[in-house]
Amino acid sequence: MVNALRTTGPASPLDALQDRLGHRFAQPQLLQRALTHRSFGVAHNERLEFLGDAVLNLAVSTLLYGRYADSAEGDLTRVRAHLVREDSLHRVALNLGLPQVLRLSEGEARGGGAQRPSMLADAVEALIGAVHLDAGFGAAQALVQRLFGALIDASEAAQWSKDAKTELQEILQARRLPVPAYRIRGTRGQSHAQVFEVECEVSSLGLVEAAEGRSRRAAEQGAAQRMLARLKAPQGSSPVRAGQSAGHER
Predict the structure, then answer these.
(1) Each residue of 123-175: pLDDT tens digit?
(2) How many domains does the chain have?
(3) 57 with 49: CB under 8 angstroms?
């Protein structure tokens, strides 16, 4: 097992992380568990991740409600989706130095697991859940404010455009058509650097588009973007036949 944490010493990684979080744990075992991947042992962070996801969404929603007093529900939902998506959480994890303190099995560590965006994003959510259990929602909300507040304050709701999947779904619903279906065609690469190929199918129109991405979510967005371009193209000028991939989204 690879245990990156030292709990003693004036400059231990655990102490340094708590300084960066701005929270000192009354129950240090919660912090340790939040940083433990399931490959390391049974006391892993997945339950804390589940809790932290809910706490993060509520905390961000509360912050957005106060920050964007005149924004409609749909705008607030899109801003929140951008803030809590894997890419944003991954950046937060890197700023906190989480790759250096995650607890992984030796095999997972050798495979580059500590650099995997999805694993780091999950650890951020687990940390938020751990703070909530350690000191309550107020402390967790204060942590979210520290981690995301500057980004929220520097943003304008209008700059957060609809993501491709949302826009595609709205267009199809406006036409009274079923929502699209997304399926993984395949994956390649090592576990820490997997590439996903996902297809987006609008069966009612007989259309399929595909794209690739470093996560399933990114690939789905890429495929949805290609489907949007297909639907918005002038009639008779569609560049790709139904069922043919228009290329790859990284």
Answers:
(1) 999 999 999 999 999 999 999 999 988 777 766 655 566 678 988 998 999 99
(2) 2
(3) no
100 shares its domain with 180: no
Where in the sequence numbering do the catalytic residues fall? 53, 125
> Domain limits at 178?
164-232
Do both 60 and 127 map to the same domain? Answer: yes
Whole-prediction pTM: 0.65
Number of Cβ within 10 Å of residue 71's Cβ equals 18
Question: Residue 137: how many CA atoms within 13 Å on its side-chain side?
Answer: 10
Are 46 and 38 contacting, i.e. CB atoms less than 8 angstroms apart? yes
* Low-confidence residues of the chain: pLDDT under 70: 1-11, 113, 154-162, 191-192, 235-250
Instruction: Give the CATH number, domain containing residue 58.
Output: 1.10.1520.10
- Angle in degrees, 0-180, between the axes of helices 46-67 and 137-153, rounded to the nearest 10: 60
The answer to whether residue 215 sits within a structural domain is yes
